[in-house]
Write a structure and sequence with these properties.
It comes from Carpinus fangiana. Keywords: ATP-binding, Coiled coil, Microtubule, Motor protein, Nucleotide-binding. GO terms for molecular function: ATP binding; microtubule binding; microtubule motor activity. The chain contains 18 helices and 16 strands. By secondary structure, the protein is an alpha/beta fold. The protein has 2 domains: 232 residues, no CATH class; 271 residues, 3-Layer(aba) Sandwich (Kinesin), CATH 3.40.850. Helix 2 crosses helix 3 and helix 2 runs antiparallel to helix 12. The two termini are 27 Å apart. The structure holds adenosine-5'-triphosphate. Adenosine-5'-triphosphate (ATP) binds next to helix 4 and strand 13.
Length: 641
């Protein structure tokens, strides 16, 4: 158990012992053997004194202390877990309050930068501020307030920062929706999916989810699954089916999924593929696959215009520890809506015209639902479109919605821009800042700041507690391993108790061939056939080196692992009880070793020396895996020299 460097000498014969052994004449026994009755036959054969050593240096009280330490550690880990849970609750509460103040339906606006194909006007008709956007046309001035307006130079990262709180809300168990809305070609797909160089919200969200999953700061475990579908011409099409090469009308089975709502109001789409995503690589693979089969076509406005609403669902499964055994599932919807468009402008005809009509109809239904929710109307018209039916349990009570309105900077798009901004204004859940008295506005901002501070503190504290839990768990598992080794030793001891008399009896029954390893210089009178050969001596010397080496590595390994944990875990290493235990253990080990050494020497001269041979099964060999820890194992002197 707690070995010291000196202990390795326990198993080695001292010079005196060697001398005393040499001084015994062959066939005689030392005085100390007087008490043992002679066994017939023993005197006929040359009596080889042997030394037995006992390397079991784990006294009973130390094992009990170890058990106590494990018990204490388990208790303290549980307390830390409770603390972490309450900190997480505190953080969650603060986040909910922030989101409630901001509104359960938040609206942000992003203005797309000019593209190479855009015609730029000298006169600016769109003026943007951090929270407002003003559209100016001759005789018209329209101002729209938003929680945030992203200017043309805003990066994908800037946008994602605003999405993160809603992501945390999803991780906390809420159903949430991030919806990109806007005219064709304004950057909805760019914002949601992005490019390889500039990843959008969805790939960043996946990365963030897995980052959170790996974080040790959780008192729960997380798993995720992914589904992707598009609402195309009023039909649902699974984007993750094995061979999704069809258009909606070509494969009715997977292209016309049905939506079910259970008694609790939870929505499920029958037959929709839901793939588990154990890691980011798998998630990215499925996501790329789903994206690649989305229906797009060329229009006057966008050469790869999305002709459908694309919905990506990440289901978050959250399982707490034993006290919170029930698994919770929440949905994170990422919705890239089809472009809102005036059909004449896009040059749509035939199928594309029908697609545009279908998109517009469902967008209008979505607007109605959001407006009804905002006004807290008794009836919410979810059933008016497939899109709103699917999102029913993620738009209503307890859910959070983030709507990103994408607009074009071009003058030719002004009418569309005003339509999109009006849609978002209708959807906003709270009164805009402009309509709020200054005093109230300030109070609101201050409250949000305080809550953010609370959230940050709780997060930091929870992180620290998470680290403490991790360190305590390492320490606990080390101590458990030590204890299990100890019990293994005890079991072995129980299985094979060996009294000196038994040893003696067995020695008598041992075939004489076993005596091969006895050295001639120990007993000059040994017959030549009983002495070891040069090869066997070399083997034994190698075996002995291995024995010593193993013992040393075990001891140093054991100690270093404890020191590692102790130095890592401030809370436990600094704990007076733990310090005392380690100190005590080391002291006791040394004490035990010294005692063993003192005890063993006379023992060698007593009963053991009368036994000249043990069967191989009772001997410790270099290849014995239990050698490092065998209690009371006995080694014959003759095997070591
Ligand atoms: N913020 C931006 N920065 C750089 N390029 C952008 C940005 N937003 C959009 N674009 C570019 O504008 C073009 C149209 O964008 P995108 O396809 O995302 O529009 P959309 O709104 O999804 O259109 P549709 O509704 O027809 O699918 C793309 O070439 C895209 O790379």
């Amino acid at each position: 158990m707690f070995f010291s460097a000196e202990e390795e000498q326990i198993s080695l014969p001292s010079e005196n012992a060697m001398e005393s052994l040499k001084s015994y004449p062959m066939g005689s026994s030392p005085d100390s053997l007087d008490g043992i009755s002679p066994v017939s036959g023993l005197h006929d054969a040359p009596t080889i004194p042997a030394i037995y050593t006992d390397v079991n240096v784990v006294p009973e009280h130390e094992k009990n202390e170890l058990k106590q330490l494990i018990w204490n550690l388990e208790g303290e880990i549980e307390l830390l877990r409770q603390k972490q849970r309450s900190l997480n609750e505190k953080r969650k509460e603060a986040l909910n309050k922030i989101l409630d103040i901001k509104g359960s339906i938040r609206a942000l606006c992003r203005v797309r930068p000019f593209l190479l194909t855009d015609k730029r006007n000298i006169r600016e008709h769109i003026v943007t501020g951090p929270e407002k956007i003003v559209v100016k046309l001759p005789g018209i001035r329209k101002e729209f307030e938003f929680e945030k307006v992203f200017l043309q130079e805003a990066s994908q990262e800037d946008v994602f920062v605003e999405v993160e709180p809603i992501l945390k809300s999803a991780l906390d168990g809420h159903n949430v929706c991030v919806i990109a809305y806007g005219q064709t070609g304004t950057g909805k797909t760019f914002t949601m999916d992005g490019t390889n160089e500039k990843p959008g919200i969805l790939p960043r969200a996946l990365k963030e989810l897995f980052h959170h999953q790996a974080s040790k700061n959780n008192s729960y475990s997380l798993t995720f699954s992914l589904s992707m579908l598009e609402v195309y011409m009023g039909n649902l099409r699974d984007l993750l089916v094995p061979k999704p090469s069809c258009r909606a009308y070509e494969a009715p089975t997977k292209c016309n999924l049905t939506i079910q709502t259970d008694s609790k109001g939870l929505v499920e789409i029958e037959g929709l593929t839901d793939v588990p995503i154990p890691d980011l690589a798998t998630a990215s693979w499925w996501y790329t696959k789903g994206r690649s089969v989305r229906s797009t076509s060329w229009t006057n406005v966008n050469e790869a215009s999305s002709r459908s609403h694309c919905l990506t669902r990440i289901t978050i499964y959250r399982r707490g520890d034993a006290s919170e055994a029930k698994e919770q599932a929440s949905k994170l919807w990422m919705v890239d809506l089809g472009g809102s468009e005036r059909l004449l402008k896009t040059g749509a005809a035939g199928l594309t015209l029908d697609e545009g009509r279908a998109i517009n109809l469902s967008l209008s239904a979505l607007g109605d639902v959001i407006a009804a929710l905002r006004k807290k109307r008794g009836h919410v018209p979810y059933r008016n479109s497939k899109l709103t039916q699917i999102l029913k349990d993620s738009l209503g009570d307890g859910s959070k919605v983030l709507m990103l309105v994408l607009v074009s900077p071009c003058e030719k798009d002004v009418a569309e821009t005003i339509c999109s901004l009006s849609f978002a204004k209708r959807a906003r859940a709270i009164e805009s800042n402009r309509e709020m008295p200054d005093e109230l506005k300030k109070q609101r901002e201050k409250r949000i700041m305080l809550l953010k501070e609370d959230m940050r503190e709780a997060e930091e504290e929870s992180q620290k507690v998470g680290n403490q839990i991790q360190k305590a768990e390492i320490l606990l598992s080390e101590n458990k391993s030590l204890l299990s080794i100890t019990y293994k030793l005890l079991e072995e001891e129980v299985k094979a108790p060996m009294s000196p008399q038994e040893d003696l009896k067995e020695a008598i029954e041992t075939p004489p061939t076993f005596k091969k390893g006895i050295k001639r210089n120990l007993c000059n009178s040994l017959p030549r056939f009983m002495t070891s050969t040069e090869a066997s001596r070399q083997r034994k010397s190698a075996a002995e080196k291995e024995i010593v080496g193993r013992a040393r590595s075990f001891r140093s390994g054991t100690r270093s692992s404890i020191q590692f944990s102790a130095s890592q875990s401030h809370s436990y290493a600094d704990h007076p009880r733990f310090k005392a235990f380690l100190k005590n253990s080391n002291r006791k080990s040394r004490h035990a070793e010294t005692n063993t050494l003192l005890r063993e020497s006379p023992k060698c001269n007593e009963s053991d020396s009368k036994v000249d041979a043990l069967p191989r099964s009772k001997m410790v060999t270099a290849s014995d895996p239990n050698l490092r820890v065998i209690p009371r194992h006995r080694r014959r002197m003759s095997d070591l020299i």
